[in-house]
Amino acid sequence: MADWTEISIAVNADDIDKAGDIAQMVIPYGIYIEDYRNLEEEAMEISGIDLIDEDLLAKDRTKGFVHIYISPEENPDEAISFLKERYSAESIEFEIVKKICKNADWENNWKKYFKPMPVGKRLLIHPVWEEKYEADGRAVIHLEPGLAFGSGTHDTTRLCLEAIEKYAYPGKKMLDVGCGSGILSVSALLLGADSAFGVDVDALAVKTAAENGRINGFDEPEYKVVKGSLTDNVTGKYDIIAANIVADIVIKLCGDVLDYLNDDGVFIISGIILPRENDVVEAVVNNGMKVIERHESNGWLCFEVKRV
Predict the structure, then answer these.
(1) Are residues 120 and 172 in the same domain?
(2) Same domain for 157 and 93
(3) Where are the beta strands (DSSP E) in the chain?
(4) Domain limits for position 282
(5) Do 257 and 216 sit in the same domain of this protein?
């Protein structure tokens, strides 16, 4: 098997989110971000500082790193050229390093930083490669994110999970739009929801989400995942609809989400950066809905929305 190429981009920590968004434009898979700005605070929230590797705690908090991985069929120099142009245009100071790596390296090297993590009041995220964890009465989601988005460590996913926790009870049906790894829908099932339906435009995400469902004991018809764009392949009505995606897609989804939301259902949207808040809220209001709860963490927003 031919070798892959790792491109590592070092930027100032305050630029890491924008730098990551630009890197995501180069390739839609094989990306991970090192961001240590809030490590101590997050470690305390987990209530187990010993869960964080000492080498990780010693990292420079003023720097962030974006890593992307280019398959043997692609030209890494084209990606580097694009990154240099975009970062310069955005006035982002950067250093780029290119090196050869084995496929197994980039699939696994981030796992040493992903530890069991409590979320909200009722859930514990457990990466399947970690043998030791304490549930402490929480519902445990055993997760293998693979290359699909959604490990629970990012603010957007955590905010979404904390909101879902308030509504995922027996009798509830959930729709997960842009399901990624399936973490939101599988968590809803573990928290008590009767059924969940996931949809994602990426075939790898569909495969990963279905597998994460099986790992946690859920399969069709209780848990179903399909490939599709937004609601193209969705039917029926749901009590919880979650979308942890970017603002422009959320705005588009607002146009028809009420067709799939029960009268007293909740629409949970996340992945929104602060500068896009007004755009998203305007789309919510213009489509017959209102924000009932607003949550913010490190510049990311999550809204709980209901029909007017």
Answers:
(1) yes
(2) no
(3) 4-12, 31-35, 63-70, 94-101, 117-119, 123-127, 139-143, 173-177, 195-200, 223-227, 238-244, 261-273, 289-297, 300-307
(4) 114-307
(5) yes
Render pLDDT for 30-68 as a digit per residue (tens, 0 to 9). Answer: 678 888 776 655 554 443 444 445 565 666 788 999 988
- Candidates 250, 258, 266, 243; CA nearest to 288 is 258
- The reported pTM is 0.66
145, 186: one domain = yes
**Cβ–Cβ < 8 Å for 83, 11:** no
Count of structural domains within the chain: 2
Residue whose pair of structure tokens reads 């603002």 in the numeric block: 247
Q: Which two tokens stand for residue 19?
A: 């730098």
Residues 6+ apart with CB under 8 A from 68: 6, 7, 9, 23, 26, 27, 30, 31, 79
Beta-carbon contacts of 163 under 8 Å, excluding residues fewer than 6 positions away, are: 242, 266, 268, 270, 293, 295, 302, 304
Residue 231 belongs to a domain with what CATH number? 3.40.50.150
Encoded tokens for 94: 């950067």
